[in-house]
Design brief:
Blueprint: H1 2-24, E1 38-39, E2 46-47, E3 55-59, H2 60-63, E4 81-86, E5 89-94, E6 110-114, E7 117-118, E8 132-139, E9 153-159, E10 167-175, E11 179-191, E12 195-206, E13 210-211, E14 218-219, E15 222-234, E16 239-250, E17 258-260, H3 277-280, E18 299-314, E19 318-336, E20 346-365, E21 371-393, E22 398-420, E23 425-444, E24 448-470, E25 473-484, E26 500-513, E27 518-537, E28 542-564, E29 567-582, E30 584-587, E31 593-596, E32 608-620, E33 624-635, E34 638-639, E35 649-650, E36 653-664, E37 669-676, E38 684-689, E39 698-702, E40 707-715
Parallel strand pairs: 6-9
Antiparallel strand pairs: 1-2, 3-8, 4-5, 6-7, 8-9, 10-11, 10-40, 11-12, 12-15, 13-14, 15-16, 16-18, 17-39, 18-19, 19-20, 20-21, 21-22, 22-23, 23-24, 24-25, 25-26, 26-27, 27-28, 28-29, 29-32, 30-31, 32-33, 33-36, 34-35, 36-37, 37-40, 38-39
Length: about 725
């Protein structure tokens, strides 16, 4: 708190001084305003400042501002967002709500959509961030319009559509660790002005950040390629058809896990590090370093592809939209699990395949009357299979072959309406009914097999009052519910776990001050969270239990300010008090003895977070202009186990980024020099306690170290 406080005081003093000085000169200078942002958070276009939801919009320009952007980058652009990676799967936590499970049967706690299509598997997300028009991060449960697994919130990515005029760009980025990334897009009219097309692509390749001491190889590398094609058919004045196909492939190995010893904080061995299984067998493990010591060769790849069709029909009083999609995914992993130079244990392989189908119909009112409404129906179905061979499992003295098949489906109907009581007062109400069904069949080959199925129903309402005393101020109060279905813990051979439910009580303020030079938004909320699905590895197999209840209290703020024609600042800050209210946690490090963790902090949830940016534009006489931007981020300590052990946590940290953009007057070029994590901080994006059979190793995934490079881009 003390460390955070001086940052806030410094920010406020600088910002208020600059704003006051700018305001005093407003009569002499032409008006400067923060640019208006349009979002579709409520399934129709509206100004960000008029939308009664805690939402952050990230422009497409920020995705093309230099270094290659992935999901982990977004956590420094939106309040309450924490993103890590685990074996190629993106782990998103928002306002303290996420999911640590990585199997194909696991549902995320934050729903992600790309062009309206729900992405059930988190391995899809690494290929989504190119040719982006904007991203929207909706915080808090979005149980009415989005529904499925939106307990923590929703992240929407909207890609660029085809245009009538020829348009496109091409860019190349090079940097340290032999980074080479190429991306571009081109499109325009194909047949008259009725059939439009656009193709976008992205490749990224770099050497690994983490050395393997055994053979000199490097992991945390990248070898990715993605392509997306879009067709827009303007079939008439009232009918539009959008078709899309995409493909993504990721090779290399991607995120590697480094190892450290676990240090118990209670019990007979308190304070004494536990040696890992490899160490007891004479293995050499590079503890606490960005390094590994694997004797087995590691392999990993992900392939994802999908198609979608969106039909929009303007019926006059209302617009009917149909969105149909099909997606297919395969991920493969071969991994040395003993973390040493000895041939003790490995995954060889872990192979997962899934395919999903979605269909959604929306009927939304047109016009600007006092009543606006939307009705919808949603269907989602997914099937998958997984196989896992745990080679030379220590507790068995031999191989542990596992196989599983899963099936999931979800059906929903929903509606929401907003009534304008007056020009300044609006009331919104909505309700969604959802039915989730799941089944699983899994085998420990050839000894035994088991199968099960279960279903859950939910009603998730939303009620909001919005008051706008003037055109520059929006006040809102909302109550909403979110629901995440129960499920089956793949390869856990346990009974189904229960659903999660969350109720959010929130009040917010959105303001535009000083002739709209300053945009400042705030949200205060309390979330009552029950049935938390908590994942851990017990002896050798995964276990999921439900915590009874938790409470999340928070304050979020974000701002943008144009201080002078050439200088602007922006940022966001978060305070979260996320604690278990009632949870008897079975701790495997204490022989599964029950530990009361009531009052302890939820996982992957820093209490304080602060992100600041400052941008200065300098005209270069007779040549063009230069734009210098600096960024600072701070996060306080995060815990990754309900017991809040410090040896499985990430301490508070600071990050600094910078970039210099040169824009010549002549031509269509942009040149960018950039640096990320300039002080080369070692930051864990995700940590997890390993199996007791391996000595409870602390497995950790690092965020990237210091990276730097240059980008050149040509637009036409």
């Amino acid at each position: 708190m003390r460390a955070y406080g001086w940052r806030v005081r410094l920010l406020m003093s600088v910002a208020l001084s600059a704003i006051s000085a700018s305001a005093a000169k407003s009569a002499e200078a032409p008006p400067l305003q923060v640019e208006e942002v349009i979002v579709t958070a409520e399934r129709r276009e509206a100004s960000l400042q008029d939308t009664p939801i805690a939402v952050t919009s990230i422009s497409g320009a920020q995705f093309n501002a230099g270094p290659p952007v992935d999901m982990r980058s977004l956590q420094y652009l939106a309040p309450s967002l924490q993103v890590g990676e685990w074996f190629g799967k993106t782990m998103v936590t928002l306002r303290g709500i996420g999911n640590d499970q990585v199997g194909i049967s696991a549902d995320p706690g934050v729903a992600v959509h790309v062009d309206g299509v729900y992405m059930a598997q988190r391995a899809y997300l690494s290929g989504a961030l190119y040719d982006i028009q904007r991203a929207e991060v909706l915080r808090g449960p979005q149980g009415t319009l989005y529904g499925r697994n939106a307990t923590g919130g929703v992240t929407n990515f909207i890609t660029r559509d085809p245009t009538v005029e020829p348009q496109g760009y091409a860019g190349v980025t090079v940097g340290n660790y032999d980074l080479v990334s190429v991306q571009g897009a081109f499109g325009g009219a194909l047949v008259g002005e009725t059939l439009l097309g656009r193709v976008a692509f992205k490749t990224k390749k770099h050497d690994g950040y983490t050395p393997n001491l055994f053979n000199g190889q490097r992991y945390d590398d990248a070898d990715e390629s993605s392509v997306r094609a879009k067709l827009k058919w303007l079939a008439g004045e009232r009918l539009t058809v959008d078709l899309q196909a995409d493909y993504h492939k990721a090779g290399g190995f991607g995120s590697i896990l480094v190892v450290d010893r676990f240090v118990p904080e209670s019990g007979p061995g308190a304070g004494v590090p536990i040696p890992t299984f490899s160490e007891t067998q004479g293995g050499l493990v590079p503890y606490g370093r960005r390094a590994v010591n694997h004797n087995d060769e590691l392999h990993s790849f992900t392939k994802a592809k999908g198609v979608s069709a969106k039909v929009t029909w303007d019926l006059g009083p209302a617009t009917l939209t149909s969105l149909t999609s099909y997606r297919k995914l395969r991920s493969y992993l071969s991994y040395d699990t003993d973390d040493s130079q000895l041939p003790l244990a490995k995954f060889d392989p872990a192979d997962e395949r899934t395919h999903q189908t979605t269909q959604e119909f929306d009927l939304a009112s047109n016009g600007n009357g006092p009543l606006r409404w939307i009705l919808g129906a949603f269907y989602w179905r997914e099937q998958g299979d997984a196989s896992l061979l745990i080679g030379q499992a220590p507790v068995l003295g031999g191989n542990l072959p596992l196989q599983a098949k899963i099936g999931s489906s979800s059906y929903a109907v929903f509606g929401e309406a907003t009534f304008e009581v007056s020009d300044r007062l609006k009331v919104t109400g909505g309700l969604r009914y959802n039915r989730d069904e799941k089944k699983i069949a899994e085998c420990f080959v050839p000894l035994f097999c088991s199968s099960d199925r279960e279903g859950w129903d939910s009603l998730t309402p939303r009620g909001t009052i919005t008051f706008q005393p003037n055109d520059d101020l929006t006040l809102y109060a909302t109550v909403s519910r979110g629901f995440k279905a129960g499920g089956f813990n793949i390869f856990g051979f346990q009974a189904p776990y229960d659903p999660e439910k969350v109720t959010n009580y929130e009040a917010g303020l959105k303001s535009q001050l000083f002739d709209r030079r300053l945009q400042a938004n705030f949200a205060v909320f309390r979330m009552d969270y029950s049935g938390l699905q908590v994942f851990q590895v017990a002896n050798l197999l995964p276990v999921v239990t439900n915590a009874a209840s938790a409470t999340i209290d928070g304050v979020e703020s974000d701002f943008k300010a144009r201080l002078t024609p050439n200088f602007s600042i922006d940022g966001n800050a978060t305070y979260l008090k996320a604690q278990y209210d009632d949870y008897d946690f079975p701790d495997p490090t204490l022989g599964n003895a029950v530990v009361d963790v009531s009052g302890r902090t939820l996982t992957a949830t820093p209490k304080w977070a602060l992100n600041l940016g400052a941008e200065f534009e300098l005209p270069l006489e007779g040549w063009g202009r230069a734009i210098l931007r600096g960024e600072y981020s701070y996060k306080s300590r995060m815990y990754f186990r309900p017991t809040n052990d410090r040896s499985t946590s990430q301490g508070g940290y600071d990050l600094f980024n910078a970039r210099l953009t040169l824009v010549p007057d002549a031509g269509h070029w942009t040149f960018i020099a950039w640096g990320q994590n300039l002080t080369d901080e070692d930051v864990y994006g995700k940590r997890q306690l390993g199996a007791g059979a391996y000595g409870f190793p602390v497995l950790s995934q690092f965020l990237p170290p210091r990276t730097y490079g240059v980008t050149a881009q040509f637009e036409f």
